[in-house]
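Page 42, continued from yesterday. The earlier attempt failed because a stray header line got pasted into the input along with the sequence. Redoing it now with the clean sequence only.
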Amino acid sequence: MRSLVLLLALVSAVLGGTRLVRCADNKEAVDLAAKLCEGEAAEQAAAEKKLRELGAAAIPALRGAKPEKDEALSRVRNVLADMVLEAAKVDPADAVMVHEIAREEGKGKRYTNAERLYRRAQKLYEKLKDDAGDRKDRVKEREYKEKEQLCERMKDKAGRKLKGETHTGLNLGFVRIGVEHDMSDEWE
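This time it went through. C-alpha cells are written below.
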C-alpha cells in the first residue's frame, strides 16, 4: 500500500510538472536566504547570486526571512525588491504582490524600496485598468484605477519621506497655501 502511494505521488509529480523540484527549490531558497542573512561576506555574495538565479521561486523564501541584524534585513529586502521588480508581469496577482511588498517596505521605513515598488505597482495597475477598459469591464477598470491612484499617492509619500519633506506650498503662519501631504506612518 505504501509503495502504491509513493508511486502515485511520483506519477502525479511527473505528469503534473515539477512539483518535486519546486519543493527542492523552496528548501534551497530558504537555505540561501538564511545564508544571505547570517553568512560570511563570501557566502552572502554567493547566496545572493544563486537567489537571483532562482528568480521568482525565491521570493517566498525572501519574504519569510527574518534577519536579526539591520544590515542583513536591508540586504534581504533590497534583493527582494529587485527580484519582485524583475519578476512582476501584468497580472492581477503580481500587482497585488508588488503592492503588498511596497506596503511592507513603507512600514519598515525603507522608503527607497517602497517608492520603487509603488511605482511598479502603479504601472501594473495602469496596464490592468487599460486592459479592463478594452474589455469593457467597467467594474474592474474602476477598481484598478483606484488602486493605481492609491499607489501613486503612496509612491509620492515615500518620496517625500525619503527627502524629509512635510508639505509643499507656502506657510504664512495663519494660513497655508498649497497642499499638505499625508505624512503619517499609515501605508496602504
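Notes: The first strand starts at residue 167 and ends at 171.
Reminder to self: strip header lines before submitting.
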